[in-house]
Amino acid sequence: MDSFNYRNGRLFAEGVDVEVIADEVGSPVYIYSKATFKDHLAKIQKAYSAIDTTVCYSVKACGNINILRFLAEAGSGFDVVSGGELYRVQQAGGDISKVVYAGVGKTDKEIVEALNAGIGYFNIESEAELENLIKLAKENNKSTKVALRINPDVDYKSHAYITTGKKENKFGVDIECALEVFDKYGNDKLVKLCAVHVHLGSGGKTIDPYVIAVEKILPVIDELRNRGHEIETLDLGGGYGADYESDSVPSAVDYAAGIVPLLKGKNLKLILEPGKSIAANAGMLLSRVLYIKQGGEKKFAIVDAGMNDLIRPALYGAFHFIWPTAVEMDMVPLRRVKDLDMPGCEVVDVVGPICESSDFFAKNRSLPVLKRGDLVAVFAAGAYGFTMSSNYNARARVAEVLVDGDKFTVIRKRESYEDQLALER
Ligand SMILES: *Cc1c(COP(=O)(O)O)cnc(C)c1O
User: How far apart are CA 4 and CA 22, in angstroms?
Assistant: First the structure.
């Protein structure tokens, strides 16, 4: 589900008319629904309840401290990929024993911070990184648990930049190498190698890659146990589909139906690291039309948000459903899909104000006729939206607003020009 729906032709976030937010907070603005975040988390927790499962929300998808706080209260652990994200989780009051830390390039400083914090698992991506962790654990006399990231060589059939589970990319080690690493380092006193991590990537639309990955990894775990290694946990990573289009991906229940039966009775705890499947359609980017421009045959709607605010279309060619927030009743979109074409629509490019031709949100999109001043919603922008935003063109990063029922709160102020200069003075 999500909580962005039209009432009498006006877009509401839960119980709040989004235009009220734009009037008060300005545009562009990210608007999140607390209910949607919590609903997604709860559904995943419930779907896997037949086995001992910890859901570790992936902070990089959408890491506002106020969001981390209520997810922590709802029992979420956290998947972090930097010292900065770990700090956010600590400040949000998250349970540090339920933090897993992935990433191919952890610095010594970050590793020592995580050792001191007492995180649940380091997800280790290479032998060299493991050697360094063992050295730092010894120097600081800290113990920790490690999951070795194994690359199951499953093709995720998604964009080349967001596939990470194939052999020829920089993440994890292959199965052969994993056995050697366990044999070589499996007896360390402080650094306990006791889990396997797999993360396939992002963007898949079926459960098959997960089922195939588990089927490939379980024999590896058997082999490791045969060699005397205690394996307590399988971390299946993230990458579960998110509803960028209506009902286009499996639900948490669907994924669990494929995964849980394979793991039942295997004496393995399960960790999941969902990011976008929790955050994506829990957020939208609200933007205002500045100008309508006719360029030859093409019509452009130039909006006040740019690729610095939401880079996914420019970076991955990602699809975001876009629609005006106030429409006639017969123009309310019943489904948010790529090829939606309703009578009375016209074809436009929705573009930002930045001096790059990749600064677009939609090309050749059929939309209700837009005019200067209209507000448009860029749907399912909650994941990798604000967290990937920048100050390019010295544009202030936009405000973030959290809606809870019929109330809304600014959870990150819009930056000022001076905020941008503060660290340069
Ligand atoms: C990015 C990432 C995730 C989250 O991926 P989503 O596609 O947002 O679910 C989980 N685990 C790791 C290791 C990641 O790098």
Answer: 15
